[in-house]
Amino acid sequence: MEMDLKTALAETIAAAAGLPAGEVLEMIETPPDPKMGDAALPCFKLAKELRKAPPVIAQELAEKIEAPDFVARAEVTGGYLNFFYDRKFYAESVLQMLGKAREDWGRSEIGAGRTVVIDYSSVNIAKPFHIGHLSSTAIGSALYKIYQHLGYNVVGVNHLGDWGTQFGKLIAAYKMWGNDDEINRDSVSAMLKLYVRFHEEAEQDESLNEQGRAWFKKIEDGDEEALRIFGWFKELTLREAKRVYELLDVQFDSFAGESFYNDKIPAVLDELREKNLLEQSEGAFVVRLDEEGLPPAIILKSDGTTLYATRDLAAAEYRKKTYDFYKNLYVVAYQQNLHFKQLFAVLKKMGHAWADGCEHVAFGMVSLEDGTMSTRKGKIVLLEDVLKKAVEKTLAVIEEKNPGLADKKKAASDIGIGAVIFSTLSQSRIKDITFSFDRVLNYDGETGPYVQYTHTRCASVLARHEDTGAQADLTVLENDDAFAVLKLLASFPQTLVAASEKNEPFYVTRYLLDLAQAFNKYYYEYRIIDDNAAQTKARVALTQAVKDTLKTGLRLLGIKAPNKM
Ligand code: ARG
């Protein structure tokens, strides 16, 4: 919408100036202060091309332009040509588009025919699903939904950490001290206990490590018993992870983990050899990355075993072959920066131009402010516990604020879990987060519950409205507060595109806060429903558009939008 208006404006300017419309479109800005106009053309860049001073260019253009209908007037201020929209016309166009799109607002076809692979969450077998996985899971899942909304074909991959010598040790420990009932009951925490005990006893008895290696060799060789036990551990770990995915409403299209690539590694090694990239160094095989200013990537250890990086090489090739991706994203903590730089550099050295479509979507650390759950040594904060605690605390808030609410448990879950997701996505992903329950659950702060609450406010207004069939009188939306809401509504599609370009779901959380704040300001200043049916109709249409857009935005982040809370 906004985009369409801008394009139309750019075309008329381009015609008057004798410039390509695309170039003009890129130059059009939104003035920081609405008093300066709704769109502005800075004429400074044109000065060279047109050999005139910017204010002169602005003045000449102002006289020549056949402004489109929605432009009420154009004004010259210094080197700027400022455009003021016809607000009634604007309101009509925006509400018409939104009335048609409803909860599909922002859906587009710009991604049609393109596939985006997103590697996210990627938990490790026999390891707890801890708070550190929250960001990867929430960011990846939000990007998944945003890309999908933009028409891309999306493939969500959970690149399970299911390969490595530690699994040999785990099986050795199980064979010595394992108790099936306990493992079935406590799954990962029981496995963790076995693992810890193994390490303690191995300090006294070196032969244990020998047993661990022997069991890992058995896994590698496809020994039936080893695979059965390992498969069982895997299943239990996944069962636990899936409980969290259900709470968070997160899905995957593939659980192809590290072990999936074992039989695909020889071909990668052959390719590296053929391309003369593999060099021997202190017994190991490496790819040198001196020119790239990176340390060499180790591909094979001296004992012939493969590494995390080797499997990622095979995985990238497999993803290209299988999905022919346009983008291949890795939502992984910034601690792995070097790993991904090396991975992409090796792919490039192999001559794969598609390495440019690979991107490390890095994020910072999450820690808890709450003392009782701090990540003290050995004390791991389980994500499931964090989510449960958020729901519990929310239930307490509901009991206090709205004890008569129907289905309080469901509401507490929608709000509590939504709050955790929203806060995780509330800032540029690269920043570290300190998580505080009190802050993220605050209905009045810049939080998920605040956005959800604004949505319920819209819902309750709409529930009270009875349609009289009157023709909407859009002049009541010409005031600054309503106009600010309309402009935000119009910019939702661009916000989604920007979020996908930068892989920043936080653009959407920021947008939702802005929209909620703008609507609430309007709501405090104006009565939506009054005796004037035609005016009410216009304000109700605005409320409906806000409700739909808040709901869509929340949905794209993986957050529910209840009608009551
Ligand atoms: N399992 C890894 C970890 O927890 C993350 C895997 C990320 N994906 C990848 N293709 N390397 O650190």
TrEMBL record:
HAMAP family: Arg_tRNA_synth. Residues 3-85 form the Arginyl tRNA synthetase N-terminal domain. Its EC number is 6.1.1.19. Monomer. CDD domains: Anticodon_Ia_Arg (cd07956), ArgRS_core (cd00671). This is Arginine--tRNA ligase. GO terms for molecular function: arginine-tRNA ligase activity; ATP binding. Keywords: Aminoacyl-tRNA synthetase, ATP-binding, Cytoplasm, Ligase, Nucleotide-binding, Protein biosynthesis. Pfam families: Arg_tRNA_synt_N, DALR_1, tRNA-synt_1d. It is an enzyme of class 6 (ligase). Belongs to the class-I aminoacyl-tRNA synthetase family. A motif ('HIGH' region) lies at residues 123-133. One of its GO terms (cellular component) is cytoplasm. Residues 451-565 form the DALR anticodon binding domain. Transmembrane segments: none annotated. GO terms for biological process: arginyl-tRNA aminoacylation. It catalyses: tRNA(Arg) + L-arginine + ATP = L-arginyl-tRNA(Arg) + AMP + diphosphate. SMART domains: Arg_tRNA_synt_N, DALR_1. It is found in: Cytoplasm. It comes from the Bacteria.
